[in-house]
Known about the structure:
Layout: H1 7-35, H2 37-76, H3 86-108
Amino acid sequence: MSSQETPADQQALRSDIAETRAELGETVAALSAKTDVRARASDAVGQVADQAREKARAVGDQVKAGAVSVRDTLAEAEVPAVVRRPVPLAVLVGAAVGVALVVFWWRRR
């Protein structure tokens, strides 16, 4: 530094030094963020999870809309009533259990 420098020049130099320090600090922070693998992986996982949630919401909305459409279509359609006969099913289940018991008893003899 020469003694001929004016205070304005010194102030400009000090402000340049302060600006350079700030830029250097930002650069160091950016480099440390890039080298922090755990934080970057965590951020990536968070982004993927957010995308998956959004996709699930979209699919859920589509399914709901489709279900409403199907329900409305079925409500408008003239579908004959289905006659259910639970008695024959119960008879078949009872017969199957009976046969299984007879076979079990026969093999234990």
